[in-house]
Queue: 4 jobs
Job 1
Amino acid sequence: MSGCMHACILVSNEVYVDKSYPYLDGPFGTDWFFVTETGDKSPLHSIVFYPEQPGDYAMYFFIPGAGGYVEAELYTEYLSRVASHGFIVIGTDLIFPAATPPLSPTQAAEYAVKSNQSDKFVSQYRWMETNLQTKLAQKSPGVGIWWNYTALGSHSSGGDVARLLLESNHTFAQSAIFLEPVGITFSQPINFSVPSLMYGAELSEEHRPRTPPCVIPGFGYQKFYKLWTPTKVMIESKGYGHCDILDQAGWEVCSTLKICVTGNNTDLKLYHDFMQGMTSAFLVSTMLGYNDSIAYVIDEEQGTNNLSAR
């Protein structure tokens, strides 16, 4: 199945649009740098990934798990590989370095949502709008950012923060990615439209003795999908868990400490191929207007059924 479902967004030919197979690394090598509160006087700490090839690229702004308390640096493989498909990618930390918090992961996520930390992420984005191009030009001359084409991404209860951000700023993003979202305070249908993908991993709702599930049943991706307005896509994978998107070091901590139920680490390369490919294909279609790319997300014959996605 191909096409744009409900709506298409067309962009200038000056913005790079990736037409390669999304479930492999994109055509560009990537590099990265930090934006820091101390060195750059930014509101928050961020890690920025960018294609090394000169050109103009769309933006992917990512809020990590636990409402932003999980360091974005633990998603380096995922974020850098999305960047390889022709995106400037910003992962932003609510606190850096992420010292052991006095709150549990669940309590930290609840605090981030109930205290509406989304405003801090908006402040960081606005700072980036003013300052990032200058910093990027020093690192890689010729690489440009098209801010009019911004996508918002999130993982876990970072999704609730992303949802709050969009409710307060309807035009912030042209597309959104909710990876295993947790909607602690999400109860009413939204009244605006942003093309969005809701993704869930089967093992995220499982738990071990004395350990609650990382995604509470009834508060995850299915809830987001139900309360969202079209255009929207829902996908679930079988046999993978909440921490499987993380880099190896983060995955090992999560698995060893039994924070979440995890999948088989021998399959993580395949899983990471899937996650970055699903993300880039959805954004290329819904934000950048290359309609054929949506087939890689919703057509099982195009490869997503490698993970029994639906």
Job 2
Amino acid sequence: MFFQNTSSCFVALLYFGATLLWASIQVLASPVPNPNVDIAQYERRTDFSFANSQLSKRAIEVNVDLVIGGEGKNEHWYLLIGPQLFQAGARDFATMDATKSKLTTSSYNWDEVESQLGGDYYILPLGKATYKDADDQAKAFAKIREIRMTKAAAKKGGNCMDYNMDVLKLEKKQRHITQEVVDAYKLEYDDNYTRVSKAVWGVDLRP
């Protein structure tokens, strides 16, 4: 009887010891921050994908600006929305038949093309555009890039000023800008439409 009780205690002690050993191994095997890296830095590294996903979900507000480059026959109007410059232009204004040919729409990263304007431009602030997050902004810009000119460059509705108006109307429809932004542009549009049409295309058009 004594032997049986002693044997049971021995088995229990062995089991308890094995459990402690296994727990110690698990602790040693678990990842520990490098002593040269502070805890906050360690947490940032181990949670990098989560942080990126959170950043991409933040609301975005950017400037909407009218960029006017050149003068006289070379005057050209662009629309700058945040980091993107949108325009309707032509490869060679001198050889194109403006009464038949349509302008081509395109967009560029402002940081990459600003130097190409050679400082021969000025900027008129129009207001702000807002987007739910980076994905929402990307989708909005993609829709802008789908805009195509439907009339010849020398016709009403076919020049770079008309393109900018089309872009702003789309942004307004998508609720990324307010009517005040459209109105700020329309003021410049109405005041300069006839002058620019005559200077660039040699036609007398009314806004």
Job 3
Amino acid sequence: MVMVTYVLIGLYAILTGAAGVIQWKETGVQVRSFLFVLVSTGMLVTLFLPNKNMMFALLIMVFLALHILAIMEGLKKKGRLTYSHHLVRFLVHLIFVALVFKYIN
């Protein structure tokens, strides 16, 4: 289950980064899309930390940063929040944190 946790979080980081790169190609380089790529890269790097307590704390910070970026993106693009999207994102992050806590930490 440890490997499944690493793979799920790694895939999530890669897909989030890919979405940022696609957004670059569509709209040009913007700070928000750059931050999505930067944070997702940070998530990938965090998975390779040998100190599991530090990895756990940094993943929580990365997930919080992704929430803030997603809220900013929603407000900028749509002018409002899509609560269902943020609830699903929050639940996915909670599952990831629970998996890391149970199997890795």
Job 4
Amino acid sequence: MSRRSDWRLLRAELCVLALLLVLGIALVVVVARSRDAATTAFEQVRAARGAAQARVGEARAQLDHLAGHQRDYQMLRRRGVIGGEHRLEWVEYLDAEARRHRGLDYRIGARAAVAGVAARDGLQLYASRLDVRFAAGDETAWSAFNAGLRRLPGWPVESRCRIGRGDAGLEIDCSYDWLSIDRAESGVAE
């Protein structure tokens, strides 16, 4: 047989083989591109998941932080530090102490914003100055007076105190800043 006759006999099979080879190469290219696209999509999803986990972690940290501040806020609210001052309770206590300790003299100043503390988020730290002078019989009476102040609404902070021995016992001359937190625009003395 001649080459021509071999070609005629094999031509159909060779064409099918060539066609299958081209289709095979095309299929490999399509699969490779699909795999690359899937890998890219997988990496994007992985990055998005990592970013979402980071946001969840930040949100949890903020919630923990908020919970700590919430506890502090509730404690300040219970102590009467948040909102207006409680002048009536202070005066009632100090008047009762004046009946117990002869010569107790006190003065409560007007509420004013604390110098050097700027308002923040619409809130301001205020102080009312309390000046107290009296003769305590002994250290126990002085401690009881201070403990009574700390049970009252607000947050009394001793700013200056002179204690000396006198004929009637301890001579007390102290100043306190009675702290409260309120809206910045409501800082007018009550």
